[in-house]
Amino acid sequence: MYVAVKGGEAAIANAHRLLADRRRGDRSLPALSIEQIVAQLALGVDRIMAEASLYDRTLAALAMRQARGDMIEAIFILRAYRTTLPRFGYSNAIDTGAMLVERRISATYKDLPGGQLLGPTFDYTHRLLDPSLLSDNEVDAGLQRDAGPEPVMRVSDILASESLIEMEEPDETDTAPGDITREPLEFPLGRDERLQALARGDEGFLLALGYSTQRGYARTHPFAGEIRIGQVEVEIDIPELGFAVSLGRVQVTECQMVNQFKGSAKQPPQFTRGYGLVFGQSERKAMAMSLVDRALRAEEFGEDIVAPAQDEEFVISHSDNVQATGFVEHLKLPHYVDFQAELDLVRRMRREYDAANPAIEEMKEAAE
Amino acid sequence: MQTAAKTNPETHLSAQDAARKLRIERLARATVEEMEGVLEAIGGVPEATNLRGPETGLVMIRGRMGGTGSLFNLGEATVTRATVRLATGAVGHGQRLGGDKGAARLSAILDALAETPAHRATVETLCAAVAARIETEDSRLAAETAATRVDFFTMVRGDD
Known about the structure:
Low-confidence stretches of chain B: 1-9
Number of helices of chain B: 4
Order of helices and strands of chain A: HHHEHHEEHHHEEEHHHHH
Radius of gyration of chain B: 21 Å
Strand content of chain B: 25-35%
Structural class of chain A: alpha+beta
Largest interface: A-B, 87 and 64 residues
Number of helices of chain A: 13
Number of domains of chain B: 1
Largest sheet of chain B: 3 strands, antiparallel
Helix content of chain B: 40-55%
Strand order of the largest sheet of chain A: 3-4-5-6
Strand content of chain A: 15-25%
Oligomer: heterodimer
Mean pLDDT of chain B: 89
Mean pLDDT of chain A: 92
Largest sheet of chain A: 4 strands, antiparallel
Helix content of chain A: 25-40%
Structural class of chain B: alpha+beta
Strand order of the largest sheet of chain B: 1-2-3
Number of strands of chain B: 3
């Protein structure tokens, strides 16, 4: 017999009202504006956009405020919102080679066309808390220097000119890639679907997996060939007009990881690649993504699959933090009936156990 | 906008199409203030019928593996688009990243106005001003980035 139980409407309504109160907090303080969040908590906003898989800084900042700074809750809200919008179409591929670069570094070449451009980085800071940020002091603007005409060449193109790295060229058909938002995941996946999943994957999960490959679980001997952050144009074909136009620019972070490969019967020894591409400024995520992308290409290169980071089904099935939080957090919802059934079962098993082992009961009594 | 783009083909546009492409792209980056300023100067926002939208939806942004290889879907962006027709019959398209419906509609109106000889020069002037602003912003960003470029120098060892 199944007995439906109702109740809790008033408690839920009051809890949500209390949530709104706590979200606003001390009323003697001014409320955060969306513009302030976009401008001053920019990297948090970028993480929400990347993992919600929706580029819109205003909406990501709104989600952050609504979620009281809980990143996964904010990602969840934004991911839910995107399902309410119609899909207008697909962009042409963004050209990261033509990026307006804000940061570009290479760990493989010291001197390279365009140079090492540090940009606004946390690298080389001392990671000491800065008490001056307790108050709102004047901040100097960045210095300026003549940028010069030299283009910021891709590091992979330097290696490619000697054929020492695998070529990345469009496949013969260059047809539409798989879209995990339209078709359910079916393993094995193509690299296209894996990259889409990794680009929206949880930063912490990918960081841990990338770290595991460095510690020996599927070692791929990586070098950060190039990391670049900057703005790229988003172009889309407009059938009414008969040509493509740019809708504006988005900021992305790209990481090209260069990895060892001893070659095979078909291919000479050469470097192979792991690729990371993420919305916004998100270097850690792009690096972790490129480590995991390379590890997941194990089968393609005939490598033994021995570690979690090489296991596509394990990695991709658990990289989405909205899915993960949904299943973990559902455990707190009422399971009263399930638990009653389990309780009855354990009681019955215990009675059977006790009946079958009278000697143990007698020994216990004797000991007392 | 429904078709899936396969590559970035090298298309050769007519001079007229090339000019319109540039115009629509610059209007996509124009601020509401910039557009309203121009419209006020020609007697306010003209009457316009909405043929489509303004409506907000998603465009799936594509990347290439390794930057140059096969396509993959990176993630979506919000896009707002509008198509309007003026009393003169001129039709204009506007679209831009983000969710600003008012801005998308204004840019569609300006695109339509540019199709009429009376206002073409006005809209072209606005577009030139937008392009100049973007150029200034980009130059500043490039100059700030250039100031963080590493100048390597070699330490000379004293013990050889």
